[in-house]
Amino acid sequence: MKNIAYLFALVFGLLLNSSCKKDSKNTGESPTHLPVNHSLEKGLVSFSINGELVPSVIDTLTNTITTTLPDGADIHKLTATFTLAANVNATVNSTAVAGSAVIDLTSQPVLTVSSPDNVRHTSFTIVLQTELQYFGVGGIMQGGTSLNKSYDFYYDQFDGSTFQAINCGPTVTTMALKWADSTFNKKPVDARDEILSSGGWWYTNHVQQYLTEHGINNAVDTLSDVAALVKQAIDNGDALILCLDMFSVPFNNFDYQHTQKFYQTDAAGWGHFLFVKGYKQTSYHFYLEIYDPYSGGNSYTSIAGSQLKGRDRYYISDDIKTATNVWWPYAIIVAPEGKSIRFSTRLKVDGLHKTIPVAGGR
C-alpha cells in the first residue's frame, strides 16, 4: 500500500508541474522581437541636377533632397542623376528609373529607393532652393526691382587711402554718382580731397553737397515707412542713401550668405552710410538691396566667387528702420543724371544732420 500511495503522489506531482508550465505560456504576455528596420536611407548614395549651383543635399532626417538653381532657371524639365547602392531600385513619382530621370521641380517630385523585395524603402522629396534663398533671403519671392547697370559702380572704402577707415561717406557718394552718371570717373579719394581733406567724418550735408556740385539732383525724405519709401523711390528709378547706426543691424555669421551685416560692430553709435539700389519683397520680409562700402577686400565664399561682401547685401526693412530711428531717420533720394526727383517732401536738412562716426574708426 505504501508503494501504491507513493506512486500515486509521484504521478500527481508530475501532472501538476506540467499544468503549471502550460499555464505560464498563457499569461497574456507577448513574445519579445527585435524591431524590423524598413528604411533604406543608405540606398541613395548621391544625387545631382544639371545646372545646380552647389551640390544637392540629401537629408535623411527630413527625407528631403535640396537642390539650388540659379534664379530664373527653367525648372520644368531638368535631368537628375543619382547613384544607388547595390541591389536597390528607384522610382520618381512611382515611375521606375535607373541612374537618371527627367523631373519637374514645380511640383516637388518624390524619389523612392527600395530593396528588391520591396520590404525596405525610403522616399525623398526633391525641394528647390533658389539662388536668393541660398543667399539667405527667406520666403517666396513676390516682387522686386534692381537698379543695376551694365557697368561697375561699387567701391570698397578700404582703398589704401589715408582715411579709409572713416571713408564710407565719400565712398557711398561716389557710388551714387557713378550709378547716376556712367561718365563720372572720380574715385572716393577725390571726394575726400574735396571735402574734409585733413580727415574727419562726413555729414549727410557733405553727401548732398558733393552730389549737387557734380550735377546730380537729390532731396531728403522722411523714413517713417522704410519699405514704402524705398519701393516708391526704386520703382520711380531713383536710388537712396541711408545713414544709420549699424550696431542695430543683426550680424550674419554664414560666410556664403548675403543677408544682414557681415562685420562686427562693438557698440552703439556705429554710424555708417549705405547705398540702396533695389528691393526684394518675399512672403517673409521686405529686403533692401544694398551696396555696403565696408568690404575691406573680403569676398563671399561658394557660388559668389570673388565678389566682395559689400556688394548685393540684403537688409531687412524692420532692422533698417530700427537703425535709422536711433541715428538719422531720413533718406537722401538720388536721381539719375539729367533727371529730377519724382517725389519728396523735400525736408529742410539744416539742423537735422548728425556727425557720422564711420565704422572703421572704432
What does this protein look like?
- The protein is elongated and about 80 Å long.
- α3 packs across α4 (188-194) and α3 packs parallel to α5 (204-213).
- The chain contains seven helices and 16 strands.
- It is 21% helix and 27% strand.
- Mean pLDDT is 87; it is low at 1-37.
- The chain has two domains: 41-134, Sandwich (Immunoglobulin-like), CATH 2.60.40; 141-361, Alpha-Beta Complex (Cathepsin B, Chain A), CATH 3.90.70.10.
- The protein is of the alpha+beta class.
- The strands form three sheets. Strands 10, 11, 12, 13, 14, 15 and 16 form a seven-stranded antiparallel beta sheet that branches.
- The protein has helices spanning 2-24, 131-134, 168-180, 188-194, 204-213, 226-235, 317-325, and strands spanning 44-49, 54-59, 64-69, 78-84, 89-92, 95-97, 100-103, 110-114, 121-130, 141-146, 218-222, 239-245, 271-282, 286-291, 313-316, 330-334.
Number of continuous helical runs: 7
The average pLDDT score comes to 87
Shape: elongated
Cα end-to-end separation:
114 Å
The name of the CATH topology of the largest domain is: Cathepsin B, Chain A
Give me the secondary-structure category: alpha+beta
User: Strand portion, in percent?
Assistant: 25-35%
Order of helices and strands: HEEEEEEEEEHEHHHEHEEEEHE
Low-confidence stretches: 1-37
- Please report the total strand number as a whole number: 16
CATH architecture of the largest domain: Alpha-Beta Complex
CATH superfamily of the largest domain: Cysteine proteinases
Q: Count the domains.
A: 2
CATH level 1 name of the largest domain:
Alpha Beta
**What profile does the largest beta sheet have?**
7 strands, antiparallel
